[in-house]
Amino acid sequence: MKYIYTVVIAPSEDKTKYYARIPDLPGCITTGESLQDAITEITDAASGWLAVAEDEGYVIPQATDQEAIERKQGDLLALIQLDTSAYRCCGDALKRINELEQEIAKLKLENETLRNRNFGGRKKHDEAWMTSYNDFIIKYNSGMSIAEIVDEGEISRRTAYRYLEYYRACQNEE
Q: What is the DSSP code string of the chain?
């Protein structure tokens, strides 16, 4: 629902903050560091006040005419429009953003765990890998076929083809 209420804004004595209240909504008061901030804060507070009142079935007070509102000299009056439907949508969106941020944090942790995971097997380019690879290349360059190299029993057919693929990729780079 949409509502329009008058806000009473009172600057602090040292003019460093502004107090904002809506006299028609008991307890609806806030502060801001600037006039704009005070209006933003009271709009949020009043929207929350009205949304709760609607949800709980409380009677929503009618807006008082500005002339009838009590105020001190130096107080400012402003009209604000409040939309509890939009307020609820923003609340739902903020909840969803929070859920997504939590999910992202979980995924980042999972990603980091996977990055640091120790995959078994021989590591490419470690000393044992390089020795086995170099032996394969010497045999391959000497004219032995993949089948003959595999038949010696030192490496599997799969490993031989991986070595061959790596060898050809290195040759293409040169």
A: -EEEEEEEEEE-TTSS-EEEE-TTSTT-EEEESSHHHHHHHHHHHHHHHHHHHHHHTPPPPPPPPGGGS---TT-EEEEEEEEHHHHHHHHHHHHHHHHHHHHHHHHHHHHHHHHT----SPPTTSHHHHHHHHHHHHHHHTT--HHHHHHTTSS-HHHHHHHHHHHHHHHHH-
Q: In Å, how far are 51, 53, 113, 173 from 83, measured between CA atoms?
A: 9, 13, 45, 65
Condensed to tens digits (0 to 9), the pLDDT of residues 33-79 reads 999 999 999 999 999 999 999 999 999 999 999 999 999 999 999 99
Taking the whole predicted model, whether its pTM rises above 0.85 is answered as: no
- Report yes or no: 77 and 7 within 8 Å, Cβ to Cβ: yes
